[in-house]
Amino acid sequence: MLGLFDTVLQPWVYPAVSALLLGSFFTPLPIAPATRRQVAVLAGATILAYVAAIYFVCYLLFTPLEADTVWGVQGRYFIPILSLVAVVVAALVNRGIDERLTTAVAISAAVLSGCASLEAIVRADWNL
Q1: Does the predicted TM-score (pTM) go above 0.85?
Q2: What is the rounded average pLDDT for all residues in the chain?
Q3: Which of 25, 66, 72, 116 is within CB 3.0–4.6 Å of 58 for a Cys-Cys bond?
Q4: Domain extents for the chain?
């Protein structure tokens, strides 16, 4: 959803952009294997700590005592951690796809998300 008015993208855009984004993560890091493992472990631990902190803060601030689930957790809180997810994936793969293909996948994800956002805004504003 986009912004204050909950403008929704076309349903097929979400999995397409997600797949393209994940596809751009598969580029091996040019460092020694032992160092790559250390990077993956440290980045993975940071991801887990970040997720736990988000849920803990939302639990303390927004969730009433009788609630069955944690209230207030939103997907936008996890966007900053995507770069660490990319680092973990890059550290764990030994071979990746061609650099030009990775670039094309990343550009495709950016163009698709931008065009889909514009389409959703135009559709919402002009009732198309």
Answers
A1: no
A2: 91
A3: 72
A4: 1-27+98-128, 31-95
